[in-house]
Amino acid sequence: MDSSTMSNESRSELREDQPLESTENDRLGYSFFAEELAQTITSRTPSDGYTIGVYGPWGSGKSTILNFVENELRGIDSAPAVVRFNPWWFSGRGDLVEKFLTEMGAQLESEEGFPDIRSNLADLSSSLSKVPFGAMTGVPAGQGFAALHRLLQQEGESIDELKEGIHTELKESDRKIVVIIDDIDRLTPSEITLMFQLIKSIADFPNVVYVLAFEQEVVVNALQEEANFRDGKRYLQKIVQLPLHIPKQKEGALESLLLDQLAETPGDHIVEEERWNSLLSSGVLPLLDTPREVVRLANTVDVMSASVGNEVDFTDLVGLEALRVFHEDVYTEIKSSPNRFVGHRTPGLRSPQEPDQYEDLLSDLDSDREPVESILKTLFPMVNDNLNDQSSAFGDWDQMRVDKRICHRERLPVYFRLTIPDGEVSSTEMGTILSNIGDEEFLVEKIEESLEEPGVVGGSKANTIIRRLSDRVDEIQDSQRQSVVNAIFATGDNLVQTTEVNHNREVQRTMFFVRDIALKLDQSDRLNLLSEAIQNGNSPYLASRFIELLLREHGEYDADPSPEADRLLDMKDIDELKSVVVETVSDAAATGDLIDVPWLKRPLEQWRDWGDPEEPEEWVDQSVSDDFSLIEFIDAMSFVSTVNWTETIFYVDPRWVYEWIDQDKIENELDDLDQSDLTEHEEEVVQRYEDAKDILEDGGDPGTVENWLGF
Question: Do the Cβ atoms of 552 and 509 come closer than 8 Å?
Answer without folding.
Answer: no
